Amino acid sequence: MNTTATRNKDPLHIAILKSGFTVVFSLSIIYINGILIHIFRKHQVFNMNSRYILYIHLVVNDIIMLALMVLLIFLSYVLFTINVSFCIITLIIAITSNLNNPLTLAAMAVECYLAICFPLRHPQICTVKKTYIVISLIWFLNSLVILPDVFVVVATRPAEYFNSKIFCMWTNIFTYPQLETKRDIFNITYLVIVWLTLFYAYFRILFTAQAASANAKKARNTVLLHGFQLLLCMLSYVHSIMIEGIIKFFPGDALIIRFVISLLIQVTPRLISPIVYGIRDKLFRKYLKRYFLPSNKASIDPKKMEKNPT
After folding, report:
1. What is the pTM of this model?
2. How big is the CA angle at 137 (ends 134 and 140), to the nearest 5 degrees?
3. Phi, psi (degrees; rounded to nearest 5) at 174
4. Half-sphere exposure of 115 (CA within 13 A, CB side)
5. Do 92 and 65 form a contact (C-beta atoms < 8 A)?
6. Contact 87/170 with Cβ under 8 angstroms?
7. 3-state SS of the chain: helix, strand, coil percent to 5?
């Protein structure tokens, strides 16, 4: 989203080219993820499996984040400034959906751990109802991170401020240094807890008695992929530091550096979920083939494939 802040510095044709590419790339990812959601909703086998419910929650969060980013890019070039209240609501949803991903990855790692280490208890623990409770809890916890910042702004700004217009960026609204310190403390604590969860799940799967089985190896690899995704999520926390550090070495290329880093950190990682799960998972891959190749009548045994955690 920060790339739009350089609008008045880029030549018009360059600014349009950058934003156009970002919008098209983002919409392409949204389209791919939309297909995965369509397949999930159409087939009951996915709706009754906690693993796929958590996966599709990851996809939905990516869609929300990308859609709101595209909206803000569009509005920044058409209107440049927008209503403060609308901006705050948009940022709350976008940032909360972005914060949801690490906790969702942790929940998916725990689900893999339970499937391998407690196969008999897994169906009773990872029910559909409990999965949706976990998802609701994820949204609730992350909203608690954002709402205090909103309460501070509401309490300290005059009423007319919320009817004014502003260039929609988090740093333009939440300007208090104390809030930035609070966010840094939360981010560190938050990521340490998620990383510990991933490491615990990985090593428990690694040393379980079933570690030699194909299912355990596949689950172990999946937890590693969760760690890679979490690493990509963490890059967003050092987004500004990375940009400023690189600009020090290449000060003449500041605009292109901001654009490329923002694209790599904010947009490109959203391709990971559909590639890792939509293609790697056997059951999802079968239904994807049927979606793109309707003439493909390959038989699918969902119950058999459900036993293979990804």
Report:
1. 0.81
2. 155
3. -100, 85
4. 27
5. no
6. no
7. 85, 0, 15
